[in-house]
């Protein structure tokens, strides 16, 4: 079980509202020049960072929703931390994806100034960052320990609105190949959070595409990767002709959520469409 570790972030606006930047599926390598399905992932992440800096929007923290690495290397995590610290002063929080080495991340990130906190509290909101990784498998599974951790966070702070963050999608995206890789025991997560009306949002990565819908009063959001994009509604593996992206989400003290997705021009990072899978 994870340590019951908390971090408190002060909202930057006087009215208690605050924003996060979600970056996901960076798929970095130890070697910054390595390509992934035809694009240089360190280059696309840096281009996303540069675009975020140009936007000059206020945000209070960054959440990286997994697949930070593609090669499971210690150096890929050091690269990620350096790229974040070189450009942003906001705290960065993370959770592992199926392409990550979770224990290695937990060991490396604190040595390079990235918090390991999995319960982040900002004014009237808390974020709970869960591990849904299954060693050596692309699909997700939430263990009883992680569910207990979530339940503990919810029970300890019944007054807080809650965002559940995880890598794997807890819903189908209607792409047969990708839906095999969903959170396979999603019903256990959904059953738990159905008892906690303060859970407002389930935020994920993994699907390399934008989704956003409300079910039973809970909003479910995924975001474009900073690397390659998967084609929505595709039976077989397919790459999408959209650029790397990022998302801002703003939270208000009365439980409100608003969000925007941005993308780089597709021409800037064009994957190799001849590749039939990964
Ligand atoms: Fe990914």
UniProtKB/TrEMBL annotation:
Residue ranges of domain Calcineurin-like phosphoesterase in the record: 19-209
GO MF: cyclic-nucleotide phosphodiesterase activity; metal ion binding
Keywords: Hydrolase, Iron, Metal-binding
UniProt key word Iron: yes
Membrane-spanning segments: none
One Pfam assignment: Metallophos
Family annotation (Gene3D superfamilies): 3.60.21.10
InterPro entries, sorted: Calcineurin-like_PHP, CNP_phosphodiesterase-III, GpdQ/CpdA-like, Metallo-depent_PP-like
Stated family: Belongs to the cyclic nucleotide phosphodiesterase class-III family.
Record-given protein name: Icc protein
Organism: Ruminobacter amylophilus
